[in-house]
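Study the following:
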Amino acid sequence: MERADVLIVGGGPAGSACAAALRAAGQDVLVVDAACFPRDKPCAGWITPEVLEELPFSIDAYAKEHVAQPISRFRVGTIGGGTVDVDYGEPVSHGIRRVEFDAELLLHSRARVLEGRRVRTVERRNGDWVLDGVLAAPVLVGAGGHRCPVARYLNPATEEAPVVAAREIEFPIQAEDASRCRVEEDRPELYFCADLRGYGWCFRKGDHLNIGLGRLDKRHLPDHLAAFLEFLRQSERIESIPDDGWRGHAYRVRRGRPRRAGERGILLVGDAAGLAASASGEGILAALVSGRMAAETILASAWSDYDLRLERRFGPSTAGGELPGRLSAALASVLLAFPGLVRHVILDRWFLHRSRATSRRPRLRRDPTRARATAPLDL
């Protein structure tokens, strides 16, 4: 039986953040992951200003050896409709590749890592948590994403909760294609579905392009993705999109009945706890913050406070109800009819988590051909 002070299932940002804080306090931590690092993960791949404050390294140091594309502008619109451009005049975010980013975080954690090991069973034996009958520790952290086995153990009942389903591809842009790609490196493009239940993105990071679409509607995801790709081709954003290399993933947003995130000796972090932002689906910030909070909870043995601390930090889980289609579309049209609202509500509040008091006023330009627009009221 291999032992540790803390077992963490999942070596992504949430697990790495928890491991790093525990290792700094002298704990023996073993991280178990089904993949071998560096491993890629389906994700649009940008990090917000608050994420930078949680990183164990500076973004400038990271950028010397990895992709860290500064983002200073955004294009926001609807699939098949017009757009609004927002220019902040300075970097307000960065684009990263998860294959690099996650591996760097895990390396900085200084934890022991068991790679290529998918956890099959979780048991409680004589005061220890035991994984697959061979790994044991008095404390267990579930950081394995939406389908984390630790999350299933802690929440065994079938759950009815909003789940985002997404399809994404990231591929290198060949030199001969770069001049014909109209997606600019410092300007991610976000396009919302007409029914407001999801959005697509097109995001260039150096010599790589990331394209994807996520929806609170798994059944109709293929149709909306096909429409989005056709829109990108017709609008000449990119000439060629590969047929192979597409990947899917799913995760909970913080809506509906929340998952139970902890009890004595066992905690959930990141996507395993269902902490992705309900407006944008962004989860890296919640992963890093909840990982650190879980470590603080473990070190203080303050098990009963953990769920309350998550609620105080991320807000209560929203009711999960949806506005009637016409009302939702009308409100969304108002948001995207005014570039200032695009900046202050959609970008600053939902995607960048910037406070209005501290953000600088950007240069705004409205596309004169902009048609009826919508906003992500259901995400």
Q: What stands out?
A: The chain is about 30% helix and 25% strand.
